Amino acid sequence: MKTDMLVDVFMKPWSNVKPTAMNTETTLTFNMYVLLYTILAGLAILPLFLYLRNPYFTQDLRYTVTCILLGLRINRIKRSKPFYSMLDCFLDKVKKHPNKQFIVFEKSSYTYRDVDKQSNKLARALSQHASVKEGDTVALFMGNEPMYVFIWLALAKLGCTAALLNYNIRSKSLLHCFTCCGTNVLLAASGKSSPLTLVLPFTISLLIHVFVLGEEEEKCVTEGVNTLSSSRIQQASDQPLDPQLRSKVTLKSPALYIYTSGTTGLPKAAVITHERLYMASSMQAISGVVSDDVIYIYLPLYHTAGFIMGLTGAIERGSTVVLRRKFSASNFWDDCRKHKVTVIQYIGEIMRYLCNSPKKDNDRHHKVRLALGNGLRADTWSEFLQRFGDIRVCECYGATEGNVGFINYVGKVGAIGKEHFLHKANFSYVLIQYDTEREEPVKDSRGFCIKVPKGETGLLVAKITAQAPFSGYANNQQQTDRKKLRDVFVKGDLYFNSGDLLRIDHEGFVYFMDRIGDTFRWKGENVATTEVTEHLIMVECIEEANVYGVKVPGHEGRVGMAAIKLKDDMEFDSKATLEHVKTSLPSYARPRFIRIQNSLAVTGTFKQIKVKLVEEGFNPSMMQDRLYYLEDSKGYIPMTQEMFHSISDGKIHL
């Protein structure tokens, strides 16, 4: 009926036309009008039709366009001769806007040109005084400061690989980090050099040259340590370096070593190639960051989040970085207001700290429009938006060494990402059934893995291809192979094992469920249970230890807990235990709860049983064993039911 009325409307102007020789031409004109109006009407209702079929059509379309443009640029970069590195990207930004602020730090600021010249000076100083040359690996042991950025760019200009050390690690772990990536030179900030004392005898025997960055030239009283003074650096020329100094560096050469916890208990040096560095740095572009943005970076630069998602992502965009030594909840929003910050980074714990800070009248008075990060719980996410205003949260997922990642470009609360056809076309990933008790994938009668249906939890694995490579860990083939799954769906295929259990719902949203293996996450850091165990059994009174993570209400991740067996005729020495973990472990890895048992349960193959321990958690009413709690000012003290309730209710903050 409606169609007839529409035809009548169009026919009326032509109803009085008499048949003539021109009628054929008139009919054609009429048909063209009908066709045109039909097309326009169809285009008008198409968005409504698409929206009804897919409520996220607009976001999907925007993401599609962004990915296509980004893919074209990356393919062009891959084909360029010589190859185009993140250093080249930085140098292009220097040419494009030399006087634009690049780094703002405390009371100082540096333009793109300033940073370029400072890195030129450092490159020459390192070459002349530390004999650094193309192909060397140089380890950085320092906190967040502009010098960190200067040194990295200087090393890139010399064709070197930078090993980004976690300055919290100590003794055996620290020494391991030097050796596993073949470090030639170690650079330490003046305030970070004390932990090196215990490993200096080994660095000398390994011919690793240690330099401490100092204000003035000093005669070091410690054997094996040299000073690279500010005066020597400033005396060097700031003119551009010859690109031939890095002529042997290729797209597949290692640009960085970033350390991640391993099930062996020792950090693993994930190999970040120049290709991977550039691709991972595009996360800001995908999230909608532009050149005019100001990004606030307080996460440590030795982390993937701080260095790649933050620093090099900002370089790729050509934006300004406000750099802070470390996170401060009390200064966070004041910094954002002072520097007109528009983009912030986070890990889940950070957002909780901000939400738990005292409320102020100006909580919503800021220019922040985008928050980029990972590990944000749904309840904290909602609370953050309600309190601090209309900020677009872009939750991401990915591992430092992994070959697949997700991004929640829609902003759905609680999801770590969303599936997209372009993403699936380039990265072949799947969730497979996993037996958490036996700690292995479930196989079918043919011996192949089984995909989980939509809505069910499974282990994320991603096919290793030229498009999605897995570079593994430096000089650690055993750990590299442990992250690979072979013959997953057909004989001969090869997949990367993420170690994470995820769930994908019927709309394509991806949710993080849990982490498998001997690693848990606390305070935004991965904690290797084996490493903590090795340190605990070094305490004189402890014979055995079983370390695991337990959930705490209102906290992201899992807090460290240890079940221990004491040596015969010995009592628990809380003071000695505290002193040892404080000396040997960073704060986030220290067991917050210690449970004393007569014997530690094991399986038939002598693997320690953690499942029941995790279920019982740190509730004294769930066990007969003695339980101790690490109180910051008092050390390990007996745990009471009242303390348990205070922790669960948030009255005691961990």
TrEMBL record:
Catalytic activity: a long-chain fatty acid + ATP + CoA = a long-chain fatty acyl-CoA + AMP + diphosphate; a very long-chain fatty acid + ATP + CoA = a very long-chain fatty acyl-CoA + AMP + diphosphate; tetracosanoate + ATP + CoA = tetracosanoyl-CoA + AMP + diphosphate
PROSITE patterns reported for this sequence: AMP_BINDING
GO-annotated cellular components: endoplasmic reticulum membrane; plasma membrane
Major enzyme class: ligase
UniProt topology in membrane: Multi-pass membrane protein
Similarity remark: Belongs to the ATP-dependent AMP-binding enzyme family.
Entry keyword set: Cell membrane, Fatty acid metabolism, Ligase, Lipid metabolism, Lipid transport, Membrane, Nucleotide-binding, Transmembrane, Transmembrane helix, Transport
UniProt cross-references to PANTHER family, sorted A to Z: LONG-CHAIN FATTY ACID TRANSPORT PROTEIN (PTHR43107), LONG-CHAIN FATTY ACID TRANSPORT PROTEIN 2 (PTHR43107:SF4)
A Pfam family this chain is assigned to: AMP-binding
Protein name as annotated: long-chain-fatty-acid--CoA ligase
Residue span, AMP-dependent synthetase/ligase domain: 92-408
Biological process (GO), any one: long-chain fatty acid import into cell
Membrane spanning residue stretches: 32-52, 147-167
Domain of life: Eukaryota
Gene Ontology terms for molecular function: long-chain fatty acid transmembrane transporter activity; long-chain fatty acid-CoA ligase activity; nucleotide binding
EC numbers, comma separated: 6.2.1.3
Originating organism: Oncorhynchus mykiss
Localization per record: Cell membrane
